[in-house]
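Why show two proteins at once? Because comparison is the fastest way to build intuition. When a single record is shown, students tend to memorize it. When two are placed side by side, the eye starts asking what differs. So, the first record is below.
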Amino acid sequence: MSIRTDARRAATTVAAAVVLGALLVGCSEEASQGHEARRAAASEAAADPQAEVQAEAFTSAGTGEAAFNRPEAVRDAFAGLQATLNEDCAPGSSDCAYFLGRVHDELLRLDKSMKADAQGPGHFKEPIAWIATLRRTLKDDTSTDNLEKHRSELIGTRDRINTWMQGHPEDYR
């Protein structure tokens, strides 16, 4: 089990606790029917991480807040990827798992935002294709060993996308 998997599990547990806490606080102000619906959503969130997202969306819809899963702007996602440009790691070093996991996560964030952008995914055809190739290469295995094995592909995809984006400044300024 990798450090990233443990961190994700811990984040999921904390997020579920936050959702449950928010639902419990909100329940004291809601009518009994809303109270029961939120209690059911909280129970599902505790049992299923995917239900947690749905419970958050339910709570957000009830209070008029912005949607929880809305993709961020390409500009913001690209800024996260750019923050990794001056970083690198030697395979096997203690910071390599974090660094490669971060590059991978930033690429996925950028992919999601490009696909949801108003210009449409066709505008970002090349970067989306490069990320898809990387996903196929990784085969959904984001373990530290696999990320280190495909380190050059991760960093190469990051660098290719950075170069492409530099040629398209209207997309991130």
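Second record. Ask yourself what differs from the first in the token line.
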Amino acid sequence: MSGKQTYITLEGLERLKQELITLKNTKRKDVLERIQIAKEYGDLSENAEYTDARDEQAFVEGRIAELEEFMKNAIIIKEQNKNIGVNIGNIVKIKDKSNKTVKEYEIVGSQESDPMSGKISNESPLGKAFLGHKVGETITVSLPKGVIEYEIVEIK
């Protein structure tokens, strides 16, 4: 079964690889030890420590599977030609036409999205709206707070 292809920067992929290594080599062993210790307490039906450890094991194994599937389908974002418009991996500086505020966003894949840090997914309404547009163009975006017009000021 092939999963959905998702874009990610090389740095983002390295962070996920490190998380996977930690989960497999450390977290998994820690949880197994907790389960073993909890089993020694006796009756598993009323053993909260055992139940908690099993829940954590399910989470760890689920995250490992999720990361492995993601990495099989990940597409590394390469340096983009800014002359063809905004693309994944670019930093775009935009101006809100209504209040003249200027913001910068880095367009990243969904796994790296962190809007509070200025990283927006290429799959988000804002990210999708910017893709392919060039400096000087005005983009109209429908967001939950209403329709907003942005002008692309710079692409890095």
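One difference worth noting in the second protein: The chain has two domains: 6-76, 82-155.
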